[in-house]
């Protein structure tokens, strides 16, 4: 069976799948609640709102750049299930810190002196948490799944992740911030309980000494991983994809508020549509490829993504703001340009999901099982470096006063680079088959 939904009934997959769902849900419940509350309730300037959104994105991404090499070493040379349990236990403390920050901001207590710093500390710590969990969620799949199940398992994890992002984002936009503060703590506790059911996944190769020098180990890890041209090109293409995604996510809240004159519920709706689209694309590409790991559809997918981004930009340009105030969801949907806008956004996400899922499967199937976590970690280092640069660029563009709407053109242009990298990967794939 190509789409191996039967895996959802197996302990070798189900606890990991649920743990990842809860992880993605909690990440996005916290991040979205924090950003929407600050953008809509604390700041009142497009420049300040865009800058805060970009800085928050950079703070979350930075740990991936700093600690991915160590995370990859640990995941390949220690029991992956044990690391998951440790990481999920730490999440409880992190979310208690973030929850306190949200409550203080809600109560308007020392907002700039205490609440926002606490929110940022928790956000950085969640980035560290995700850095150590990230390599495992993909690297453990070839260890617990049969070879013909890996692509389907990757697609299910990716689709499930975006469904979880969907629910986390919906809740963040619709529930009070104090409820979000309680929700992130409860979810962290549930995540730890489920993580304890993940089957053991001991190291499959020789246990080597850990290198704690993050600069040296990061350079060595990326260099050692890049010897296979297909893996190198997949990492580069994924990096540009997530840079595009980071810039888009940074733009959504301030763009919804200042360009579309829409409420925070509408900003949440944008993230929801994006999550649904990536989930659809993730499952669809597996059906098209029939379980075969291939970059066959990647170049066309990301070109289509760029065209949808351009369409999204044109609709935003033509949008006539409402002079009476912020539109709620029914008022927004009733706007004559709303349907074209949401269809463009859905198209961006579907094409993006079809582009990126086979590339992740490349990273776990074309390297020895003893190196899969380090390969994912090397990918995370390059991805996070590119995303931090994207965040800094978005921050700089906001600082010099460039309208947030014109940032969309940057995302569209980056799709061309991703398409070129996808084409090079496809050629390398075909060359290796000769």
UniProtKB/TrEMBL annotation:
Range of residues in the leader sequence: none
Entry annotated with the keyword RNA-binding: no
PROSITE patterns: MFS (PS50850)
Record GO terms (molecular function): acyltransferase activity
Major subcellular location class: membrane
Domain Major facilitator superfamily (MFS) profile intervals: 229-434
Protein name: 2-acyl-glycerophospho-ethanolamine acyltransferase
Organism name: Tsuneonella deserti
